[in-house]
Amino acid sequence: xxxxxxxxxxxxKSSTARRVAAALGFIHLDTGATYRAVTLAAIRAGTQxxxxxxxxxxxxxxxxxxxxxQVSLNGRDVSAEIRSPEVSRAVxxxxxxxxxxxxxxxxxxxxAARGDIVGEGRDLASVVFPExxxxxYLNASPLERARRRACERGLDSPAGIEALAREIEERDRIDSxxxxxxxxxxxxxxxxxxxxxxxxxxxxxxxxxxxxxxx
Length: 215
Prior knowledge:
By secondary structure, the chain is of the alpha/beta class. It is built from nine helices and eight strands. The protein is 53% helix and 16% strand.
């Protein structure tokens, strides 16, 4: 079974997908982590982030593994490094290139072939798994999404939240306007607004939807 959660940054995809997968005994597929790993590699190599051909060539030399919440890049655990502010600011610039997306989509589909999955990303319902059994589009107000990211980074100042709101707004703009696999809600995806919901409430709703399909 394939369950996909799409949505913009800060909508709750990662936390929800992780917990839903654990509750159901499914594989958790964090597709964003694959693009973050490429971004980290590009930053380390000094590859120009606007050079799709160079980034595509770089991908061919990378070994990215996703397993049990851990992300490995060429045999090294980079789970913490790919969440750095530097990578977060650059990942949309890398992920917009078709040369990168084609290789990461192939990787994501290989992971999904292992068994039942709960995947999270931006183009899962539209591109990666159009045949998914359940498609959900998570969203939340821009202010709430910025507040959540601020909590993740240990920021509590109004200035810090405002800066994150601008960062999220720019990432949304890039993700939703890129030519290759833009962020969007497909017609067959259910919208779930998480603005006023706790994580536990969101997880419970998704788990209930999956179980009703399997009944």
